[in-house]
Design brief:
With 147 residues, this protein is of the alpha+beta class. It contains three helices and six strands, in the order E-E-H-H-E-E-E-E-H.
């Protein structure tokens, strides 16, 4: 069940492309974009006031990617400065849908975009569970202190 379907304000996280992020041609390797997006979602959650290890240890849940759809549009290269965005496009009782994008700062080129469905999972049973009320309230009010 989807409770909200309007995108929230986008959260932005800066990333620099390191040599280890690239293939032999100096182009960002396709799976590295997923790492960049994961970092942005983690920092978004942190800016809402929730550290992932504390969410697991205190609230007993973890967030796991359930589904992802990615489009690779333009290459990012070694030493590029990128900005990764994340916004909640929809939320359910036990999941969040994010719209994410990776842009090159130098020219604003959209390098990659994705729709990511993240499920809230009981850390012990590894089964879907409701998003804890404190997190859901923060998502709804978008009290982001970060960038």
């Amino acid at each position: 069940m989807v409770l909200q379907s309007e995108p929230s304000a986008a959260f932005h996280w800066p990333v620099r492309v390191y040599y280890e992020d690239t293939d032999a041609g100096g182009v960002v390797y396709h799976s590295t974009y997923l790492n960049f997006m994961e970092r942005a979602r983690t920092e978004w959650l942190r800016c809402l006031g929730f550290e992932q290890d504390q969410v697991r240890d205190v609230l007993g849940v973890v967030f796991a990617v359930r589904r992802i759809s990615v489009e690779f549009l333009r290459p990012a290269r070694f030493n590029d400065q990128l900005t990764v965005s994340a916004s909640v496009a929809a939320r359910g009782r036990a999941s969040l849908d994010f719209e994410q994008a990776v842009r090159r700062d130098a020219d604003g080129a959209l390098c990659c975009r994705a729709t990511v469905n993240v499920a809230c999972v009981d850390a012990e049973r590894m089964r879907a569970t409701r998003i804890p009320p404190a997190i859901l309230e923060a998502v709804v009010s978008e009290k982001v202190d970060g960038l």
